[in-house]
Specification:
Alpha-Beta Plaits; Aminopeptidase; four-stranded antiparallel beta sheet
């Protein structure tokens, strides 16, 4: 098993020797090493090979005991062992040769896949301007060196790269009126069904983690707006439902563990509506007795992770086959602070 370890040490002699000794005594093999100097110390990144029985938490504890601060440990592949300068040069050739977009190249170089970490509180983001504005984000913070490398690659592509593709026509913008988030009722079933018909297949897939046609049975619509044992909220603009969130208990052994789902119409996405729905539904779920909500989605669904971070909630992420299970604790001191009563 390979792990990427990122930690900050005080910049003083002997620190890395001590870390190497601790790893060697524990049977952990350091395969690669990078240093990223910063004003408050040096951030070191190591790729290590561990034997059976080691977990991310165990490796993090070992590095912390060796003097590391701000330790993060994530699973990685042999791709992480590639030489960084060589990888950036090859990425530049791919982008300039039309074999890759700049955005895709940076995602590979900076390994911005959905985080496989124990605790998640929000992404760090690099925003760049070149042939076109773009942003990449990940759970582990970027170092100044990584930001400089990404900026240099973007500048190179902008200076000598091919002309950008014609711009994609902008999606229609929603009306200026702000949506109102409120409790859902059985009378909202038809409007919720209509919302599904306006959502893209991709949006529906991310919501239900399965292919959807956009047409839902009236009985299902009623259960989504008026669940027997859960809570549901909707966002409306005038008389149109533009978003929906529902949380229901699904664990017979633990009635305080609930499953949560959020759906936002495509033209209303990236406007804060998902965050508002999440805040309101978790507030309502907490009042109804939930101590934790879970969301099951695909690893590429960074949008829900950013939404959780913006809502001020802390997520715990685990992998289950090809899916991610995102658990959000609804502690009394967290939920009331980031949510207000549903209107």
């Amino acid at each position: 098993m390979l792990y990427r370890v990122r930690t900050t040490f005080r910049d003083r002699p002997g620190v890395l020797a001590a870390l190497a000794t601790v790893c060697g005594d524990a049977g952990i093999n350091i395969l690669s090493f990078q240093a990223f100097p910063a004003h408050d110390g040096v951030t070191d990144e190591l790729v290590v090979s561990v034997g059976a029985g080691w977990t991310e938490i165990g490796v993090a504890q070992l590095v912390t005991e060796a003097g590391g601060r701000q330790v993060s440990v994530t699973r990685c592949s042999a791709r992480s062992l590639r030489d960084a300068p060589t990888s950036y040069l090859r990425a530049a050739a791919d982008v300039l040769g039309g074999r890759s977009s700049l955005h895709a190249a940076l995602e590979r170089l900076l390994e911005t896949e959905a985080p496989d970490v124990a605790d998640y509180a929000g992404h760090d983001t690099i925003e760049l301007t070149g042939t076109e504005p773009l942003a990449v984000s990940r759970a582990v913070p970027f170092t100044a060196t990584e930001r400089a490398r990404a900026s240099a690659l973007a500048d190179l592509v902008a200076a000598v790269g091919p002309a950008p593709d014609p711009p994609v026509p902008a999606a229609p913008r929603p009306p200026a009126q702000d949506p109102v988030v409120r409790d859902a009722t059985a009378e909202d079933a038809d409007d919720l069904a209509a919302l599904h018909t306006r959502c893209s297949e991709r949006t529906l897939f991310l919501r239900y983690n399965a292919p959807m046609t956009g047409v839902i049975h009236p009985r299902m619509a009623r259960r989504l707006v008026a669940p027997a044992d859960g809570v549901a909220v909707i966002a409306t603009t005038a008389r149109t439902v533009t978003g929906h969130a529902v949380a229901i208990p699904t664990d017979e052994d633990d009635p305080t563990r609930w499953e949560l789902g959020i759906l936002v119409e495509d033209v209303w996405q990236r406007r804060g509506l998902g965050t508002a729905l999440l805040r309101h539904v978790t507030w309502a779920a907490r009042r109804a007795g939930a101590a934790e909500v879970e969301i099951v989605t695909e690893p590429g669904n960074d949008a829900i992770l950013r939404t959780i971070g913006r809502a001020g909630l802390l997520a715990r992420i685990t992998r289950e086959g090809t899916a991610l299970r995102i658990s959000v604790a609804l502690s009394p001191d967290a939920v009331p602070r980031c949510a207000s009563p549903v209107r």
